[in-house]
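Appendix B: a complete holo record

For completeness, this appendix reproduces one full record from the ligand-bound portion of the collection. The bound molecule is zinc ion. The inputs are the chain sequence and the ligand SMILES; the output is the full three-dimensional arrangement of the complex, encoded as structure tokens. No fields have been trimmed.
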Amino acid sequence: MKYAGSPGVLKVRDLDDAGWEELTDGVIVAAQPHGAPTRFPCNDRPSNKATYAITMAAPSDYYVAMSGRSVETRRRGSVTEWTREMPQPMAPYLATVQIGRYEARDPANDVVVIAPPDLSGDGYDASFGRQPAMMEFFESKFGPYPFDDYTVVVTDDPLEIPLESQSLSTFGRNFASGEWSAVRLVAHELSHQWFGNAVTLSDWRDIWLHEGFACYAEWLWSEESGLDSAATRAAHFHDKLSGLDRDLLLADPGPALMFDDRVYKRGALTLHALRLTVGDHDFFDILREWVERFGGGNATTADFEALAAEISGEPLGTLFDSWLRGLSLPALPPSSSQR
Ligand SMILES: [Zn+2]
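The structure of the chain with zinc ion bound, as generated:
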């Protein structure tokens, strides 16, 4: 069956624009949560995972970065065809393409950065140069990296927020600052490869399974890199959340609050509360088994609760009820080693 169309951005009430968007000199595809159909025919549901083979043609002075491993790059006159394959199941919104006047950095490394040729310096190195160490650290905590390779695209335009796609993350050049506000998001997007991309929610109401986990990964990296510990960051954000409105239900925030910062922070705090309750050993076993058991497919909050109870052998219903299904902010529990 043949399809044809002119890609563009999709506007939906209550949600940010999504899909194929033009940059100053290139294209970005930011499809979460509903933008995939702006460039290919699909049943755009996170549970509709499939393997992909994609070929894109672009003028030869542009670099085309896509989700998946490189199969072939063939130049035909002034046009180059780029073919990529994603052999692991992928949700439609995670199939991205990024086009710009980029060059590939360190193509032999585990993490390849695709960036404008003029982008370099201490800030760039501090933001993006520690990703191989980040990768090693996350593998030690979450289990093996779930895909064949990892690419980070840095666009020439500044971007308000970075974005995860399967095996590829996208940042604006404003994130090459080396500041923690940028580094934390480099860690955040990488961790989405385990939490969001390998294990994908079945329904968008469970968005905390992506964003809470990625936010907690930031705190883990903070501690690993010699900055504030996860416990310090948890205490800080618990304090901050206690001063904000209590109208967000973590287990079902609704489309308007789906990407509200409270989903991220309360989601991360839920994991920290679980960690304090079951102890480090069981907590990281739960995270690794989550990816091992559900990687390549979809999962729900109920699946996570059942797995946590199974591994810890503890009744966790009250804990999850209060964090996920209550509006008030529970206190952080005492550490399991202190009980
Ligand atoms: Zn995220």
